[in-house]
Amino acid sequence: MKQSTVRVIIVSWNAKADLHACLASLPGSTADPDRIEVVVVDNASSDGSPDMVRREFPSVDLRETGANLGFSGGNNAALEDNRCDYVFLLNSDATLPTGGLDTLLAWADATPDAGLIGPKVINPDGTLQFSCRRWPTPQAGLFRNVYIGKLFPQNQPAADYLMRDFDHAAPTDVDWLSGCAMLMRRECLEQVGPLDDKTFFMYCEDMDWSLRVHGAGWRVVYAPVMEVKHKIGASSDQVAERMIVEHSRAMVRFWRKHQTFFASRTPRWVSSLVLPWAILRASVRILKRVVTGQAFTKRKSSSTG
After folding, report:
1. How far apart are the C-alpha atoms of 6 and 289, rounded to whole Å?
2. From CA 228, how far away is CA 276, in angstroms rounded?
3. Count of helix runs (H) and strand runs (E) in the chain
4. CA angle 20, 25, 31 (to 5 degrees)
5. pLDDT averaged over every residue in the chain
6. pLDDT tens digits along 196-234
7. Cα–Cα 20 to 30 A to 154, which of 55, 85, 93, 161?
8. pTM of the predicted protein model
9. What residues does each domain of the chain span?
10. What class does CATH assign to 6-291?
């Protein structure tokens, strides 16, 4: 029987060393290199990433956008002409284990009603990343990535949002999956369409995609049959203040786009506070970086080759 095929899509922006490690991990993730095609979408990097890909990974389909299209636009540049059975969105600061992609594809083939599938994601030190989550709530936003969350680290709204009550040891249907590593079936992609790059530049496009997959009648499944190691922030940390603003903007846009869906889950007066809270939250986070001397300093990206 013919093995299923997958297009691995990696969007990269000034992450040369991490991109190198990511690409180097792919051949060992499958016993049959002919079943995968790798596309790197470079969002106008200035660190020599495209030259490195051309020189060291000549079989990779390198697509240079000439501009920073963000996560959504970058991935869409490689989604539109896909002919493989699956697409696998993978962050440039992530690596795959030996045989991992074969295992994930085998599980997906055996679960034909799963439209969107997320593997287990771990930090470089082996600890768990919360890559499958429940739908966000204003209550969870009150505690996430702000000082009050550190005062109450065991708060229930954030714990519910991150699914801390789930042991992450077995496959389970979830609300949404992190875009750092997600597998979508081609039939599902053809039905729900690409990422919404008109609304989301960075952040929340994975939540939006997951919600649209649910709406189309497909399952969204967390399947810890493969462990992806993910560093977090290889590109975004280089422009941290901009990404803080972008994250808050994306959350507001997501909430507004799907306000009908959330209307029955959230009191109207709480929903009315989403925008002012997002502005306050972003301002406090940036102010903290200013006070600590971290603001407006680009993280130095290491190079390879």
Report:
1. 41
2. 36
3. 13, 11
4. 145
5. 86
6. 999 999 889 999 999 999 999 999 999 999 999 999 755
7. 93
8. 0.85
9. 6-291
10. alpha beta
- Average pLDDT rounded to a whole number, residues 39-55: 97
Using alpha carbons, select from 47, 74, 48 the residue that is nearest to residue 63. 74
Contacts of 85 (CB under 8 A, 6+ apart): 4, 5, 6, 185, 186
For residue 203 the two structure tokens come to 């952040």
SS3 content of the chain, % helix, strand, coil (to 5): 40, 20, 40
Structure tokens at 234: 């290889």
Nearest C-alpha neighbor of 10 from the set 161, 229, 138, 180: 180
Q: Which two tokens stand for residue 294?
A: 């971290």
CB atoms within 10 A of CB 189: 19
Q: Enter the tokens of residue 237.
A: 């940390």
Task: Determine the residue type at 180.
Answer: C
Q: What letter would DSSP give residue 297?
A: -
In angstroms, how far is CA 249 from the centroid of its own chain? Answer: 17
DSSP structural state of residue 9: E
Q: Scanning the structure block, which residue is given the tokens 């297009």?
A: 7
Tokens of residue 245, six digits: 């603003």
> Which of 181, 143, 177 is closest to 277 using CA atoms?
143
User: Which residues, other chains included, contact 280 with Cβ-Cβ below 8 Å and sequence gap of 6+?
Assistant: none
Q: Determine the residue type at 291.
A: V
